[in-house]
Amino acid sequence: MLKDTFNRTHDYLRISLTDACNFRCVYCMPNEQMKFMPAKHLMQANEIESIVKTLVDLGVKKIRLTGGEPLVRKDAKDIIERISKFPVELTLTTNAALVDDFIEVFHQAGIRSVNVSLDTLKRDKFLELTKRDLFDKVWKNIQLLIEEGFHLKVNVVVMKGINDNEILDFIEWTKNQPVHVRFIEFMPFDKNQWNSSKVFSFQEVLNLIETQYSYIKIKDEANATAKKYKPLNHEGTFAVISTMSAPFCHNCNRMRLTADGKMKNCLFSKGEADILSVLRNQEDITPIIKKCVGQKEKALGGQFEGDFHQIDTNKIDNRSMIRIGG
Ligand code: SAM
Ligand code: SF4
Fold this sequence. Notes:
Blueprint: E1 12-16, H1 45-57, E2 62-66, H2 76-84, E3 89-94, H3 103-108, E4 113-117, H4 123-130, H5 135-147, E5 151-158, H6 167-173, E6 179-185, H7 202-210, E7 215-217, E8 226-231, E9 237-241, E10 254-257, E11 262-264, E12 273-274, H8 275-280, H9 286-294, H10 321-324
Parallel strand pairs: 1-2, 1-10, 2-3, 3-4, 4-5, 5-6, 6-9
Antiparallel strand pairs: 7-8, 8-9, 10-11, 11-12
Iron/sulfur cluster binds near residues 21, 67 and 69.
């Protein structure tokens, strides 16, 4: 079992399959001409399988595939199949543009729940935010996931003055469809033009929704990052991921593996453990994994704490979100 010095058990692994993406979301990718990692730096399918085996032996029970966009990887199907052989709950986060090519793969792999990122319900704004005119395709694929019976969570990064005026439209969507919308507070990463005035906070989300809807608090999952609510008489639910205004580090169970095989014990950790090099040297990766988890800071990678308005982004030492794997 992987425990850190704060007695938190780590049994949830997020694996980034690639830092490449078919979208260019402004808050995620530092610039449109970003150079993606060369293929030889990426973990190969058999290497991912081998690292997963060790981590499952160390107690990992849940794995989320992410990126960049996990489904742009040519061997995504092979990787999904390999990981599905392990006794873990397998899931993924995707922008949904390629989902229609993968429905059968997901079913075969026993994937039951999928997180899709969608920050706007308007075609024009979608193009503005992602730099891709693919709203209709994404919407169709979301409907396909619902028809196919997947539990569908929709991630919305809320940015003040950009899409906060659509929060109520997202809630309206939950009325007749079983979608679980998660409003995510905008987080600072390398060169993503974050500033605190763009954060639309957890409390602001609730205050706004209260003006139009009655809702009840529902039980959060163990180790959940999201605080969940159900609007009365709606099929779906909503939740808020309050990383900035009310972090949830006290019961964190997550570790991350970047596409180039570095382990991060926190989304905001400065340090990284080079698991892939150790594996390629044909050495045991267990000690480096344990050391990495053991070095986990109490909260937010030790990079900031307290009032998020006081954060100095120049002092944050981290990769961009697309290179970490969200
Ligand atoms: N391409 C996939 C997607 O968009 O779902 C997976 C990778 S993406 C990096 C994972 C999640 O991180 C997405 O839901 C995205 O909205 C979120 N994300 C990216 N940058 C963020 C930021 N600065 N603050 C909060 N969430 C962010
Ligand atoms: Fe790509 Fe996802 Fe980042 Fe958007 S949020 S640029 S879809 S990785």
